[in-house]
Amino acid sequence: MLFTHTRVATDMSAFLPKAATLRQNLLIGQLQHGPAARTIMVSLENASAETLAVASDALANRLAEGNTFGLIANGSFERKMQDRNWLFAYRYLLSATVTTERFMPEGLRQALNISRERLSTPSGDLFRPLMARDPTGELAGILEGMDVQQGPAIRHGVWFDGNGTRALLLLEIRGTAPTVEMQDAIKNEVERGFSTVASPEMRMILAGPAIYAVESRNLIEHESRNFTIFAAGLIVALLAWVYRNLTQMILVIIPAASGILAAVVLVSWYYGTIHGIALAFAIILLAETVDYPSYLLLQTSPELPLAVAARDIWPTLRLAVLTTLVGNFAMLFSGIEGLAQLGLLAVIGIAVAGLVNRWVVPALSPHQRRTTSTSSPLPGWLETMLRPRLWLAGTMTLLALLTLTIGGFSWEDDLGSLNPLPAEMKIRDHRLRDELGAPDVRFVIAVPASDLEQALRGSESLRPALDVLVKENVMAGYAMAADYLPSHTTQQARLAALPDPDQLRQNLPGAAQAAGFRPDVLVPFIAEITRARQLSPINISDIPDKAWRFRVESLLLTRTDSTVALITLKGVTDGKSLSAHANKLAPALLIDLKQEIGDLVVGYRKQILLYSGMGVIFIVALLFTHLHSLGTTLRVILPSLLGMLCTVAVLYLCNERLNLFHLVALLLVLGVGINYALFFNRTTSDRAGENRVLFSLLVCLLSTLIGFGALAASSIPILHSIGITSFCGTVFSFLFSAWLAPQFRVRA
Known about the structure:
The chain is 63% helix and 8% strand. The chain is an alpha+beta fold. A hairpin with a 4-residue loop joins strand 11 and strand 12 (563-570). It starts with 7 loop residues before the first strand and ends in a 9-residue tail after the last helix. Residues 744-748 have low confidence and may be disordered.
């Protein structure tokens, strides 16, 4: 029942390290819940500009019928949807141009001149009815400021790219942290809306984190399913060729099936979901756990019943299982949920498979004997290659050391390189983000504060420094919650800047005549100023306009005891200069996603290296306790360590920068390699017994390489990293185990 109700997760944030500092906590919050994470960018193309403009407005209207989006912007739609009455009533609290000087004779004259010029623009008809009541153009300035902040140039009344060939829309999902299922439904909603308004030849392109989450899920599900079926099919074909006996094939599959089933069910129960990458990782479980019954069946002499053989081989097999388990423990304590799932999946699967192989398989068929189809001797060239060769092992080791000494290797600390999306999709995202002026996904400024008012004041205090960065072309612009809800302090200052009616009556006539207006036409302006002076500062709860309120809330991270105001940056052209100005923004925090993620990864890499070192020490102690010989212990663990060394050298030669997942795979190599070394060091009674051991090891090697090879072929970077590392490491560990084995393994 649990297995049938298992929920599969595909959110790649599961493979993000946990935040350790305030800055990193804010970073993770921005990645998962911030404005950039909820943005969908839309491009309409392949039609005439007029047709695209009509479709843009029609799509915006269609999407507004639902409640999915808190923001729908295309250059005209947002102005149409604003609650003008509310904006008009509170314009003097919201307009950044309200100062004492603005209502002096010269300030009034300049404002009236701008309003007169505005009346001659295409949007002039929108503001002409309000001219007598708002001659200084506060409402027009607010709405135009929104356009400057939110979008590119306007053609045919809506946003277009620089070439005028693509109409653009910007959508922001209402709420926080939608699930992938919700994101898929949102994507389908946009596509349905487009299908109802588009002409047959028109094409729509979607971009943004919500879209990429759906694409990542589809890719992970597709590759997990296909590679699992492919690898499982090859392994079953291999077993069919080896055993040619249905009963023995069933006995081989039972431990692996039991381990995978138990692992998937228990991981799903513990975490509530299981990640798609963890399911793909089950390929490795299948490849490893079919080895245990193969060791048992293929190394058993034809005259020995299975129950007796299981008892005889158990000490060696038990040690192989225990060392493999220890090799996976570092993932359990990594602090990364995705890796912890992989570790728990491996630990449960291997433990269950090992126990089933020891107790269940012999109980099902205690008198089963080995088939004779695999008793033929190995090819001469293969036996020659697998003979002990200390000189060859030493040469390979020296070459690997020389490669790493000369070339070295570097760590990959940018988790963006693990994004499974194709390169063209990433290019599309950057292009649309630049054209739309959408928030930069790398940089954000966070203003921590004890409450909302302090957060808004802190944001406002940064305007001079931010304006300098814009003037110096370090970035194109910025947006903050205070743009839409000024602090009470700022609102009170703007109220105080409004002139008393008598002063306005003295200043207005001369300014009106100088700007070409009749003074008597502007008499209603005096009543508006008088009314505005009676207003009180507004709060979020006072904002009736949903879109406006959404803008404020989307730029705030509110907790029970604190509030963080986010300042999103646009068109950052010089990240180094921006970082150099970070100290001028204090106490606000400039968060560089790439840098902070890199710091997170470095910290967790050190932690995994520490756990890995402890695991190696524990494995050595475990081997020595069971083998009672330091020399044998070294012969068992040394092949894996040398295999890991050669694997790192090969990865360097293949231009693979090591990341956390290469490191995790090396731990898998350690466990698998020790299994081979244990059996290469196991003495046999005769030459036929040695052939059986070699044949069983080759069969297990092939099944393991099939599993690792399937992952190595994946286009998902995490799976590819684990697969390619494990594949190379397994081959090297196997060869070193053979080359470093005792000269005479046959017991007299």
